[in-house]
Amino acid sequence: xKILILALTVALSFGVLNTAQAKEALPNVxxxxxxxxxxxTSELRCQKCQNQTIYDSxxxxxxxxxxxxxxxxxxxxxxxxxxxxxxxxxxxxxxxxPDFKSSTAMLWIGPFILLFLGGFIxxxxxxxxxxxxxxxxLSTEQHSRAAALMKQKGEES
Length: 157
Hints:
mainly alpha
């Protein structure tokens, strides 16, 4: 009886694994359709991974999105219609290169603003630090200590 249960468990586990692998969207035979599929899925961001396209992602959500793209390709929809459907469903963030409009302006301009602001702060801090160092005269004790260090350095060379 134990052997039967063990055999049934093993058979079911392999069956579950095979169905999990079958969830992946099946590739098309036509290379033109497959190239179109790759082009569309390379334009869409995985909502779970967020730094990968759905084409590159192995997440379950990405597999669902791939199946949806394949379904719409087989229904005869254009690339623009498929991407518009995904944007309507998931928002502009699903696109790797969203269109420039008021709602996505900060995605396009934000990095340049941060770069400019960082450069400005860096220049300000360097000038401030340079002014503090150059404006402070040496005391007689600091002057004599510096002279002693220079003399010591000259003797070592």
